[in-house]
Amino acid sequence: MGAELIRMTAAELGSAIAAGQVSAVQAAEAYLDRVALAEPEVNAFLHVDRETTLAQARAVDERRAAGEDLGPLAGVPVAHKDVFTTTDMPTTAASRILEGYRPPYDATVTARLREAGLVVLGKTNMDEFAMGSSTENSAFGPTRNPWDASRVPGGSSGGSSAAVAAFEAPLATGTDTGGSIRQPAAVCGLVGAKPTYGGSSRYGLIAFASSLDTPGPFARNVLDAALLQEAFSGHDPRDSTSIDAPVPPVAEAARRADVAGLRVGVVKELSGEGYQAGVLTRFQESVELLESMGAKVVEVSCPSFDTALAAYYLIAPSECSSNLARFDAMRYGLRTGDDGTRSAEEVMALTRAEGFGPEVKRRIILGTYALSSGYYDAYYGSAQQVRTLIKRDFEAAFEGVDVLVSPTAPTTAFPLGERTGDPMAMYLADLCTIPTNLAGNAALSVPCGLAPEDGLPVGLQVMAPAMADDRAYRVGAAVEAALRDRSGADFLSGSPYAV
């Protein structure tokens, strides 16, 4: 029975639990057993507590037995990226500086999913403080891609993407600052979405870059991702950037799966040199598929997108430099060298030197320099001006089209270790996703095939205006349905990984 349960979609599993065909405890046990089998190789999780998870599942079964009206995902397991605070499990952001830290409060995303009846399986691996594109920057070892264990699962939310792709979880949460949900979703053959900035609460999310960080969902199909996004989205007065507006009807759009009459813009700047041939082949096939389903496809130019990467790597490190100043060894977390002879400043320096990894240190140094006296206007200020130009490019494009499309990532999953010594090559993995973060729009990645060179997944990115997340889901669901109807498309069901 366990094998059958973990192959069900989250929507199917939720319906089966609601109908009394299976209990939340049985679903949790099936996934916990799968985690125990897969983890020695995948390393998707940083923390799993079987008893805590089963206690949550029993509580959901009791709530349902008492007649409580629960949501469509009640009893369905979910894995949380280890950047969302949880009172009953450690929250480390994959950093030694927070090793073993147990927060005194739940993140809004965590709390809302608990209230909706989802059962937390555990906390997933990630690039330290969400800084990376491969999950190789974790202080607790890299995660492996279930499609090919010699390759990365993307990042920074690579633990979440690998867990869902390896059938260790039906759903997972992640955060997208420059592509950290969409890029790992693409290279692991999953659906991953970046909601509109402010559409999902950042309260209780350990901050990397506050004007960019966006919580979002991972799933093996578009409807499951939409249901998860709806479950944790909505206005939160504890987040000053939260939008006080109705949640876009993403689940309804996912069920509609129709693009007839939609205007689709192909972004000219997000293709060409540096893109893997097989990625471009699958992308072009997806565009032709949309056209065959009744969409009107046109080419759109967004010239400022060519400067997005440079602007992002000034804005994000600057905000990281400011946000990570709170990890000072004085209040919580790691403390090194406090032997009674050293000053507070010396203890801070020793702790941060030991507790932060190389990539985090690199970005703190870059950001501190960009914010320093005499350089602020030249670097950070100029990058913010570029950000405005990118936003204007989006606004101009959306005057003529309903959505924009591009490859999600320039290449398929690259080998572990291939880019660790070349930060610029690593940063290029987010080339297609960064513009949306800078503008604050919504975007979604949906699997669109396997690259002929290596047989690894390729993602189609669908970008929509702010608070029009449902448009991206509508297009993603239509592509998913058409591919499944045409070929059966085994790649749409998760990786072929087996332990």
UniProtKB/TrEMBL annotation:
Keyword ATP-binding: yes
Domain Amidase: 28-470
Catalytic activity: L-glutamyl-tRNA(Gln) + L-glutamine + ATP + H2O = L-glutaminyl-tRNA(Gln) + L-glutamate + ADP + phosphate + H(+)
Active site, per annotation: 81, 156, 180
Protein biosynthesis in keyword set: yes
Segments for region (Disordered): 134-159
Keyword vocabulary terms for this entry: ATP-binding, Ligase, Nucleotide-binding, Protein biosynthesis
Subunit structure: Heterotrimer of A, B and C subunits.
Protein's recorded name: Glutamyl-tRNA(Gln) amidotransferase subunit A
Lineage of the species this protein comes from: Bacteria, Bacillati, Actinomycetota, Actinomycetes, Streptosporangiales
Gene name of this polypeptide: gatA
